[in-house]
Each structure stands twice: as C-alpha cells, then as structure tokens.
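Weekly modeling sync, notes
Attendees: AB, CL, MP (scribe)

Item 1: holo prediction request
CL wants a bound-state model with nicotinamide-adenine-dinucleotide before deciding which constructs to order. AB pointed out that an apo prediction alone won't tell us much about the pocket. Agreed to run with the ligand included and paste results into these notes for async review.

Input as submitted:
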Amino acid sequence: MQRIAMLGSGFIGRFYADSLQGYRNRDKIVSIYSRREESVKKFATDYNVAHGTTNMEEAIAHPDVDIVCISLPNNLHEEAVMLCCKHKKAVMTTKPLGRNAQEARRMLEAVEQAGIFNGYLEDLVYTPKFLKAYESVKNGALGRILWAKSRETHPGPHSDWFWDIEQAGGGCILDLGCHCVEITRSYIGKDIKPIEVMCWADTQVKPIDAEDHSIALIKYENGAIAQFEVSWTFRGGLDLRDEVMGTEGTIWSNNFLRTGLEMFTTGKGADYVSEKAESNTGWLFPVGDELNELGYNHMFMDMFNSLEQGKQPKESFYDGYVVNVVLDACYKSAKSKQWEPVQLDIWRGQEGVSKDSHLIEYDEDHYLVKEEMTHYGAKKLILKNKQTGKIFEKEEK
Ligand SMILES: NC(=O)c1ccc[n+]([C@@H]2O[C@H](COP(=O)([O-])OP(=O)(O)OC[C@H]3O[C@@H](n4cnc5c(N)ncnc54)[C@H](O)[C@@H]3O)[C@@H](O)[C@H]2O)c1
C-alpha cells in the first residue's frame, strides 16, 4: 500500500485521484495541497483525504506520506521536487518535467543526489494500445523501425496558466510535444540517441506569445526518424494518433477520436463526453474508460510496483530530462529554421551507433529491391547486381 500526498487539485490531480482510488485500490491519498482553502476542502471531501493544507511543504512532510504526486502548473514542479528531496520523499511528477532542460537537469540531479525514488508520469506510454503496439515492436513484428509519428492536437488547454509563457514555459510544443517525443522515442528505442531536430512553429490563431501549432522531425543516431504534430488550434476534440513503420510492418493507433464507440444524440442530458470534446450533440465519439484508455492505471501500477521492488519505473526523471532536451532543440530550430543538435549533456544509452544497413541480401551476387505478386499471376522480383549496380527485373513462375 502506498500513501500519497497530492499536490494540486485541478484537472490532472483529479484524473490521477480517480485512477489512484477509483477501483477499490489499496493505495490512498492521505494529504492534499492546493492553493486555495476551498479547493483543499472540496478535494478532501471528494476523495476522503484526511489531511489538507494550503502549505506545500506541510503536505509533503506529513509523516503519513510515502510518495508525493506533483500535479501543479509547470513553473511549480521544481520547487515541489526540491521539497521532496529535502524531506526524502519518493516523488512522481506529471509532464513536462521542467519548463526547459536546465530545470529538468536540476531536478534529475537533485533526486539522484537525495537518493529518492523518482517517476515521470508520461501516461501515454502506458495506454493499453501503446503497450500492445510496443510489445509487437519489441518482438520484431515490424522489423527495423524507420519512422515513428505521434500527433496530439486539441482546441487548447483548460486553465489560464497554460497560456502564459512564463508559467507554462512554452506553448503546444512543450505541453503536447512532450508526449509525442516520449512515444516516438520509445518505439525507436530509448537507448538510441536523438541527435538533431528540425522544427516549424507558429502562432496561427490564439492571442498569445507562445506557439499554438508546430511540426517537427527528430533524427536518431541509427537513422530512424521521429515526427510530431501538435496544436492548440485543432477543432473537433482531442486527436491522439500514433503511427510506427518498420521494414516488416506498420502500426496505426487512434486513442481518442475513433475508439470503436460511436453515438448520436440530439443533446438531451449529455454534458461531458470525453476530454476536450467540442460538442455534445450529433455524432459523438465517447471514450469508454478514460482513466484506463489514457494509461493512468497502468502508469501508477508501474510506479508503485517499482517503488515497492526498489527499482526504477519505466519512466523516470531521466526520461523527462531527455524529453526536455529534445524540446529545447525544437524551440531553437523553430527560431533558426535550421537543423539543431540535441545537446544531451547526460546520456545513458548506447554510444556511437552506426546507421543500419539498407541492403537486403538476395543471393551472393544480388540485393533484393522489391518483390510483388501481380494481378496476372506472375511474381516479379526486382534485383540489383552487387558488382555492376545494374537494376533489373525477373519473373518467378
Ligand atoms: N496527460 C497528462 O499527463 C496531463 C494532462 C493535463 C495536465 N498535465 C500537467 O499537470 C500539471 C497541472 O495541470 P492541470 O491541467 O491539472 O492544471 P489545472 O489548472 O487544472 O490545475 C492546477 C492545480 O494547481 C493549482 N495551482 C495553480 N496555480 C498555482 C499557483 N500559482 N500556486 C499553487 N497552486 C497553483 C491549482 O489550484 C490547481 O489545483 C501541468 O504540469 C500539466 O502539464 C498533464
């Protein structure tokens, strides 16, 4: 059993609390910190939390607390993490870890120096669809991974602080790109170094200083390429889609707008449909169990099992740091309009991986370019002579 201090009682704090306590779990929130007294009281009543306070340090230091869950605006993550280090409390923080790589690095170094458990709450690499797809990728069902793409777009966040570049640290690149980087990086291999990025970003719609739309490419040392598409200007709900392509196969997944559940209503009685849904009438795409389909349950299971077994969870502060470094390079590239290097001062994966070979052996003298069964019953082979480089086709009967 884990006894949790929840910091923040807003949007994600409540999703987390629903997941932590929603399935007759043995884990329990025992302490809640929120900025305002009335929010503390409301959260404590809703989730039956014994201790509530408007003092962050008091919530963390409470003697009943085993682990702290940070669900605060981005500019408060570092302060909360440092207090967890001071009181030697295990900590898990929501995404993004920092507003930039400098903050993330300070947090990573602090938790490691303090010797405390640290988890990075990147729920989208714990969704049932991701876990299943990832298993296939790891088993080699897709062959060598060439390209991984992740898209997260919606009509914009739900609280004021997200729109203020100082508190949030950035716009949709930081807010949504953090998910996409970790999803694509997981498919390509977390031990493969991201080396450079090319990013376009613009403020197309919203009256803000940060970007509200961005597309980026992230090159990996083994030659694989990742791509993200993020936006706070998309109309139509929450679009969460991933694609991964390898030499032997492809996976497409859609986490939110096409889950297999489709409904029509004239609007009577239907208020909440699913996160960021823009309409509650007409044809709708509800999500059966958001807590599970967004990965919160599997994520907390990994966090607590890892804590109890004294090992690192699948997602730790180190992963949060790598994500922040990649996103910093994206911001740089969006400004310079050039490929920008990913400046990973701390790297714990493979070094000096060379680009994988693109040559497929056919026989001693030839490489295989392509084989195809035609509609007229002939199997065509396209081959390349290793010596002469000549490309030619032949039919197999
Ligand atoms: N899928 C996800 O992983 C996911 C989804 C949404 C948000 N988040 C992250 O969760 C964090 C919180 O986002 P949210 O959507 O819950 O925001 P929110 O605005 O709904 O809630 C923030 C909470 O922090 C408190 N707060 C706000 N400003 C504060 C201040 N200055 N001092 C003290 N407390 C303050 C609020 O009262 C509230 O309890 C952010 O880092 C965000 O990126 C993650």
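Recorded for review: The chain has twelve helices and 19 strands.
Action items: CL to compare against the apo run; MP to circulate these notes.
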